[in-house]
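pls read this protein.

:::
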Amino acid sequence: MQIIAQRQQSGLTVKEFCAQQDIPIKQYYYWQHKLRIHFAPAQAPETKKEEVPTLVPLSAAIPVQDSLIVQCGAVFPGSDGAYF
């Protein structure tokens, strides 16, 4: 696969080199792909780390003293529910 090395040494883009050498661009990339597969080091398959939930003891929980008031339309907190 001297073509790949020649292209790299030429300093030309793949498009320019292929046009100059009368090589289809798809063919060039096919050869390049084959070389990468052949010379690439064997990679171990990635293993997913199993997620384990973290349990927080209740004694570590922080008590909350806040409250939330929701207002809807013209009904206000403390209104007489029987009226509506």
Q: What stands out?
A: The two ends are 85 Å apart (CA to CA). The first helix runs from residue 2 to 10. The chain is about 40% helix and 0% strand. The mean pLDDT is 81.
